[in-house]
Amino acid sequence: MAAPIYNPVIPCVHPIPGGMYPGRMIRVQGSTPPGAQRFAINFQCGPNTDPRDDIALHLNFRFVEMCVVRNHLTAMNWGVEDTNGGMPLNRGDSFEALILCEPHSLKVALNGIHFCEFPHRVPFQRISHLTVDGDVMIQLIGFEGAQPPPQQMYMSEPPAYGAYGAPPPAYGAPGYGAPQGYAPQPGVQYAQGMPPQGMAPGYGGPQPQYVQGPQRRGMGTGAAVGMGVGALAAGGLAGYALGGGFSSSNDSPSEPPPDTYEPPSRDEEIMPEIDDDDDWLEG
């Protein structure tokens, strides 16, 4: 973990050791004076401020307008502002901001409560510097989350997003602890991409248990045909074979030993007994 920065002079520009990647979290602790108007935290794609390098995330805390503006800057042109969520900070108070990088967005928590999620408009791989300016005093800037292995792969382009709606509902109690989902994730592998929606790892009930029954032997032709039809309908030809329909030898009737077998003579053949009554002909 990179060493934190204590009490930087404002405005400040500091490189982010190792850059940003999924699982990386930046912790900013500070306070504002009673007459604060605004201050900004920027995740920039370079150290320059005049002219300004591209900004992947611009957090502008505006106490007069009572909102926190989120935006991005490319080629000195601002994008569409997002101001939903109001202003959770008060003038003259201390605060802590957590910014967590995820594969498709940057999540922001203020004083231990989730505040917003900002989809990547600029690839997070370009982020290299953190800048702070305005009416604010910063006590600490921390860099959390281990550097990922070099063989990790990330999406080169973020997915397309529509209009930005309201931020997700807040969770967690007020304070300075990281809310659920904000803990840095060192060593997480992302080469396989994100799981499909509704299929997050670690979810789902116990796997069903399948018990193999004993193999049937000695079935007659009718039973074998009945089982074969059911097996073909349910599982195809393989299921039919496993069900015993293609038994090679076990289903044939047993024969007596050759030395004891004597075919009956014609005199010993049992003829069917015919009833003298003609009731069987009625019908």
Automatic annotation (TrEMBL):
GO molecular function: carbohydrate binding; galactoside binding
SMART domains linked to this entry: Gal-bind_lectin, GLECT
Matches recorded under PANTHER family: 32 KDA BETA-GALACTOSIDE-BINDING LECTIN LEC-3, GALECTIN
Organism, scientific name: Chrysodeixis includens
Biased amino acid composition, Acidic residues: 270-283
Region named Disordered: 241-283
Coiled coil ranges: none
Residue ranges of domain Galectin in the record: 12-144
A Pfam family: Gal-bind_lectin
CDD domains linked to this entry: GLECT
Protein name, as recorded: Galectin
